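Section 5: illustrative case.
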């Protein structure tokens, strides 16, 4: 085995095979440790999808799209779609609800404010 095929054990520091599931020196099981780390939540309790930035920003832009400015709503729509794509590619990042709020609310108000702006231009 070459040096690239080895890694240090996270517990005892001895060099072990990179694909090892158990350290031959200290007996630590890595598969159990990785499963425990994945099952742990974060400080937000999983409510805020901080790993899915497009969905999160799309959500906030969707909420703020109530303000009469159509580009905010359209940006929320686009970022919501990108957030859904990221959830589809990486389900562990979460953020589906945030992305849908960005799409629906941002898209609705983006179109409303775009229509109001166009009517103002035409009527003026």
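Designed sequence:
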């Amino acid at each position: 085995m070459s040096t690239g095929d080895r890694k240090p054990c996270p517990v005892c520091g001895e060099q072990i095979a990179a694909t090892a599931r158990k350290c031959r020196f200290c007996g630590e099981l890595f598969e159990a440790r990785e499963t425990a780390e994945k099952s742990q939540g974060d400080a937000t309790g999983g409510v805020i999808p901080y790993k899915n930035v497009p969905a999160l920003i799309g959500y906030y832009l969707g909420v703020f799209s109530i303000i009469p400015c159509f580009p905010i709503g359209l940006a929320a729509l686009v970022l919501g779609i990108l957030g859904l794509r990221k959830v589809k590619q990486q389900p562990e990042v979460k953020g589906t609800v945030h992305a849908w709020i960005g799409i629906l609310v941002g898209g609705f108000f983006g179109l409303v404010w775009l229509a109001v702006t166009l009517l103002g231009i035409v009527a003026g």
